[in-house]
Design brief:
Length: 371
């Protein structure tokens, strides 16, 4: 019978006596470490906003964009921004029941913590005796196929010129390869699982005839298409317009308890309306365009913001057109509440929308199927 993975708690118990025997008088003078506050998980199906920040900068006020959908004892993660693994634990979610990960697109702020779920969450168990032990299905974009022109028509150097637009599979393979030394050592001296046995990547294939192209149009009008159905959750997707980033997806999760749609990063787009029709929750990105216009940003950065994201004044009418029950704001930019308060986000997003508006906060839990 194969040996079980070493539990951190069992390891600490085994070494505790030796530590005490070695003398803890000096240690006793040190201040006690305080654990980070955890959220008490709600019962039942729910949406958990792990992180609600937009963009790569490590803002102190919010963690990177990531969400989790908890349905019938399974957890589905949507995007894996900065600190997603830590937030997952603070939300009281268990790695052992992580069923699938969905990546809307391959910008760094949506994938920064993706491989950490396996690099850190599938080795030694944590203090909750929890770790990934079963394969996790990961769904996301395939290779873009072409790079967009530079904003200023310059010819900048290309990173990895032989593979400049990798998709999910190559991204994952290279992450595994980059950490090979650490993984190989842990396999040999701690008996951890080979991460290659715990990740099943699925590059989403677009239906034929969409007319989509990496150099445009990146999100032509289309109908939603099925990505997967595991009997608990049916996931459909549609292309959205995130400037030059292709493919960029919005996802819809239909369950017996209700439906949740994630816009991904996008300008205001009718494809989101098509995907979100009649949904219980629409989690939509939001920015304050006036804030960035007044901020004196470099032209390239301002152009990116305006051509890639949805202004707060546009999300309410979009949610109304889709007939959703609740609009949840996430991927919030600017992220600092000193720039725009939650009350102001709600007020402005609610114009033109007759439903409920929630300005998302990190670790916020929203029940699915009931108010």
């Amino acid at each position: 019978m194969p040996e079980q993975p070493v539990s951190r708690r069992r390891l600490l118990a085994a070494t505790g006596a030796a530590t005490l025997a070695g003398g803890t008088a000096a240690l006793g003078a040190a201040p006690a470490a305080s654990a980070a506050p955890r959220v008490r998980p709600l019962d039942g199906p729910r949406l958990v906003l792990l992180g609600t920040s937009a963009g790569p900068p490590p803002e102190a006020s919010r963690r990177g964009i990531a969400s989790a959908l908890v349905v019938d004892g399974r957890t589905y993660v949507i995007d894996c921004g900065r600190s997603a693994v830590t937030q997952y634990g603070l939300a009281g979610l268990k790695l052992a029941v992580l069923k699938s990960i969905f990546l809307t697109h391959l910008h760094a702020d949506h994938i920064a913590d993706y491989y950490n779920f396996f690099l850190l969450g599938a080795q030694l168990s944590n203090d909750e005796d929890d770790l990934i032990t079963k394969p996790v299905d990961v769904y996301g974009p395939g290779p873009a196929g072409a790079l967009p022109p530079a904003f200023d028509n310059d010819d900048p150097p290309v990173v990895a010129p032989h593979h400049p637009t990798p998709g999910l599979k190559r991204l994952t393979e290279k992450q595994i390869e980059a950490f090979a030394y650490s993984t190989n050592v842990f396999i040999r001296d701690s008996g951890i699982a080979d991460p290659r046995t715990l990740i099943r990547t699925h590059e989403i294939e677009l239906p034929e005839g969409t007319g989509a192209h990496p150099l445009g149009p990146t999100a032509p009008p289309m109908e939603p298409f099925e990505v997967t159905d595991d009997g608990t959750v049916r996931v459909t997707a549609i292309l959205v317009d995130h400037g030059p980033v292709f493919p960029s997806y919005a996802f819809r999760f239909d369950t017996a308890h209700g439906s949740v749609v994630f816009s991904g990063d996008t300008v205001r787009h009718d494809n989101v309306v098509r995907l979100a029709r009649g949904a219980d929750l629409l989690v939509h990105e939001v920015m304050d365009a006036d804030f960035y216009r007044a901020a004196g940003l470099p032209p390239a950065y301002l152009d990116h913001m305006l051509q890639s994201h949805t202004d707060v004044t546009e999300v309410g009418p979009l949610a109304e057109a889709a007939g959703v029950d609740t609009l949840v704001l996430s991927h919030i930019c600017p992220s600092d509440p000193r720039d725009v308060s939650s009350a102001e986000w709600r007020r402005r997003a609610g114009k033109g929308f007759s439903g409920r508006v929630i300005a998302g906060e990190d670790l916020q839990q929203i029940p699915l199927g009931r108010r």
